[in-house]
Amino acid sequence: MTVTATAAPTRPAPVPAALAPSAALLPSLGAVYRAQLSRARVARIPLLFVATFQSLGIMVMMRGVVGTGPGDAGAARDVVAGSSVLVVAFVALNLLAQYFGRLRASGGLDHYATLPVPAASVVLGTAAAYASFTVPGVLVTAAVGCTLFTLAWVHLWILVLVVPLSGAALAGVGAACGLLANRQEIATLLGQLGMSAALLLGVLPASHMPQGIQWMRDLLPSTYAVDALARTFAARPDWSAVGLDLAVCAAVGVVSLALSTWAYRRAATRT
Amino acid sequence: MRREFLDNEDHCCTVRDLAKSYRSGRGTKATTVQANAGISLEVRRGEVFGLLGPNGAGKSTLVRQLTGLLRPDSGSIDILGHDIVRHPERASRLLAYLGQESTALDELTVSLAVETTARLRGLGQAQARDARDAVLTELALEPIADRTLGRLSGGQRRLACFATALVGERPLLVLDEPTTGMDPVARRAVWAAVDRRRAASGTTVLLVTHNVIEAETVLDRVAVVDEGRVIACDTPGGLKALVDGDVRLDLVWREEAPVGLPLIAELAGRAVMAGRRWTVRADPDQARDLVAQVTAGPAFAALDDFSLSTPSLEDVYLLLGGRHEGLAK
């Protein structure tokens, strides 16, 4: 049986009603970014400290294997650059995948999906915030690494490019993993695997690896950020190679963020 | 279809023959579940319209369709003259939705959660701040404005989420169990805020609820939903008239009911049992007689509590033949 309400007394009312304005891309991106950034106040330990402690620990451990002499210079650069980028991989890839996985599994995406806001501003605002969470950790790791392995500080300014570009690439991958995974555990697993790959293939000196592993290393977007940073520790950096590496990061960032925006739309209106 | 919508000018929301089914399980064990099976209803402008029904009745599916989150297999949804099945993205510009989950906001302060939501509803920075301040004052949330949502009590968190639904005013509010966990003061604040918007701008409210008591006091009309269909739709008073004359006798036993007694054995045949609580519907004279017999006889020793009450929406629901024992979770 289907019962419907009976007709009501007529009241004058215009139809169709005017639509409220949508939120524009940049202002809503800014609002999402600001809100996400404020989460660091509450979740400061996982978002800011854990990754840094992990990277510092790895560098101390590697210092036992890699010396500071001229023979070990290449390895030392890889270790410091890999540990610095690992902070980005931990936060922007692993934690962001977990965050979106949790949001999707719990129905939290409905909040954004029922607001007139472009999908890109939610994904980009959140990704930008997660990339920003990595800044203090990367700076501390790079500074401690330079001290520990007596590397030159001169070109550390390159972090101004390395952090946002690797942040974009890895946050894009992390967001896509979190939004595409159909279960929260899968999102967590993908985030952890991505971070572990960045750890194992990024921190350990590439020159010591077999050829097959080197090819795998080339498939990881974090590799290009590691290589770009590692090259700048040289006395005369090969700037064109650095530029090429960063361009790869930027390209991966564009593709992965576009993919995660699509994944967000799909997850927000899944049937 | 367009003509029909124009004919119903005082309707805020018109739903026709909405159906949605999905597959559950995998492979050969997969079954098709009908989440809604031809729902039709009309919500008039300015009214508080309730959707009442047990878990799994199809209320959430209906709400997800109204809010543009889920596309129905067939049927039509018109909100204020806009076809939401064809243009689901328009829903967010016509209505504000308060879902049951707050995970997207849990790590924000109350103040920032409200301000951000206002921004994402298209308000400029200054407007968003003004709207935030106004709603925090209105709901008396100022003392906890700087506290994080996730660290608030359930009722306070719910009130903060309700505040996010109010900013960037919309002509339709879709509220999914808005007052869960709230104390009476907060509940009053919610309904006072709703009333102010109805009086000032004719806001319509679609309320999903399990809470029968609240439904009776705040709803103008209610649709009882079961197994993906609307099984009744009327004012609470109109629905209660269906069980007119009958009263409800609740008996709560200390431990086991003394079913060895003939009177109690007879009652056992017609009572709805929920643990130690038995509920019997009867006409007032018979109910009075039953109370006299139970309280005067040997059964009284086993009785913990009893009450006689006039019919509620829950009784209506039971009378309508809902497949569940009651509306309570």
Write the layout of secondary structure elements.
The complex is a heterodimer of chains A (271) and B (329).
Chain A: H1 25-42, H2 44-63, H3 73-106, H4 109-113, H5 119-148, H6 159-180, H7 184-203, H8 211-219, H9 221-231, H10 239-268
Helix pairs in contact in A: 1-2, 1-5, 2-3, 2-5, 3-5, 3-6, 3-7, 3-9, 5-6, 5-10, 6-7, 6-9, 6-10, 7-8, 9-10
Chain B: H1 2-7, E1 11-24, E2 31-44, E3 48-52, H2 59-66, E4 74-79, E5 82-83, H3 91-94, E6 95-98, H4 110-120, H5 125-138, H6 154-166, E7 172-176, H7 184-201, E8 204-209, H8 212-218, E9 221-226, E10 229-234, H9 236-240, E11 247-253, H10 262-268, E12 272-274, E13 277-282, H11 284-296, E14 303-309, H12 313-319
Parallel strand pairs in B: 3-8, 3-9, 6-7, 7-8
Antiparallel strand pairs in B: 1-2, 1-4, 4-5, 9-10, 11-13, 11-14, 12-13
In short:
With 271 residues, chain A is mainly alpha-helical.
Provide a descriptive summary of the structure in words.
The complex is a heterodimer of chains A (about 270) and B (about 325). Chain A is an all-alpha fold and about 270 residues long. Chain A has helices spanning about 25-40, 45-65, 75-105, 110-115, 120-150, 160-180, 185-205, 210-220, 220-230, 240-270. Chain A has one domain (about 25-270). The longest helix of chain A is centred in the N-terminal third of the chain and has 34 residues, at about 75-105. Chain A is elongated. Mean pLDDT of chain A is about 90; it is low at about 1-15. Chain B has about 325 residues and is of the alpha/beta class. In chain B, about 50% of the residues are buried. Chain B contains 12 helices and 14 strands. A 6-stranded mixed sheet of chain B has the order 6-7-8-3-9-10, sandwiched between helices. Classes of the chains: A mainly alpha (about 270), B alpha/beta (about 325). The interface between A and B is large, with 50 and 66 residues.
